[in-house]
Amino acid sequence: MSDADRTAAVSRETAETTIDVTLAIDGDGDAVVDTGIGFFDHMLEAFAKHGLFDLTVQCDGDLHIDDHHTVEDVAIVVGEAFTEALGDKRGIVRYADRKVPLDEAVASVVVDVSGRPFFEFSGEFSQPFVGEFTSVMAEHFAMSLAMNAGLTLHAGVEGENAHHEVEALFKALARALDDATRVDPRRSDTPSTKGKL
C-alpha cells in the first residue's frame, strides 16, 4: 500500500468464513460482491457506489447456520482494509456528518477517523428481516466496521420499513466515510495535535 493509491487487499479465514476483500478508497464506485446473501450484496454495492469506493468482496460463510458470521466477518475485513488503505491518514478531512433519507426512513452517521474505536447506535429496525438478511445485523455491521477501521462512529435510523432503514444506513455510512477520508488539499500533515491518529 502506498499513500498515493490508498488501496488494500485483505483476506481472513476462520472455521466460519473465508473472505477476500480489495478496496480502493479513491475509486469510481465499482463493486463486485458475493456473500451468499442477496440483500447484503445489494447493501455492499450501494456502500461502494455512494462512497465512490472500488470494492470487491468474496465470502464463503456458514450460511446454513445464519447470516451473523458472514455479515460480521465481512465488516471486520472491510474495516481492516480501510485501516490499511488509509495508512498514516496524512491530509484526510477526518470528521464527517451525514444524513440520508430513503422514502419515510432516515439514517444519520457522524464519524471521526480517529484510530479510537467507539460505536453508538440509536433507533431500531421496523421488521426483523429483509430477505435473508437479519435487520439488526446492519447495526452489527456498522459496529464491526468501526472497531476494525478505528472509527468513532455514532449512527441511527428511524422509519417504518426495514429495507429502507438498512439501505439508508449503508448509504449514510458510505457518504460519511467518503467525506471523512477525502484528502484536504490545504493539509499536508495528519489532522491531530498529537501528530498521529
UniProtKB/TrEMBL annotation:
PROSITE patterns: IGP_DEHYDRATASE_1, IGP_DEHYDRATASE_2. GO terms for biological process: L-histidine biosynthetic process. Keywords: Amino-acid biosynthesis, Cytoplasm, Histidine biosynthesis, Lyase. It is found in: Cytoplasm. GO terms for cellular component: cytoplasm. Its EC number is 4.2.1.19. It catalyses: D-erythro-1-(imidazol-4-yl)glycerol 3-phosphate = 3-(imidazol-4-yl)-2-oxopropyl phosphate + H2O. CDD domains: IGPD (cd07914). Pathway: Amino-acid biosynthesis; L-histidine biosynthesis; L-histidine from 5-phospho-alpha-D-ribose 1-diphosphate: step 6/9. InterPro entries: IGPD_sf, ImidazoleglycerolP_deHydtase, ImidazoleglycerP_deHydtase_CS, Ribosomal_Su5_D2-typ_SF. It is an enzyme of class 4 (lyase). GO terms for molecular function: imidazoleglycerol-phosphate dehydratase activity. Gene3D superfamilies: Imidazole glycerol phosphate dehydratase, domain 1. HAMAP family: HisB. PANTHER family: IMIDAZOLEGLYCEROL-PHOSPHATE DEHYDRATASE, IMIDAZOLEGLYCEROL-PHOSPHATE DEHYDRATASE HIS7. This is Imidazoleglycerol-phosphate dehydratase.
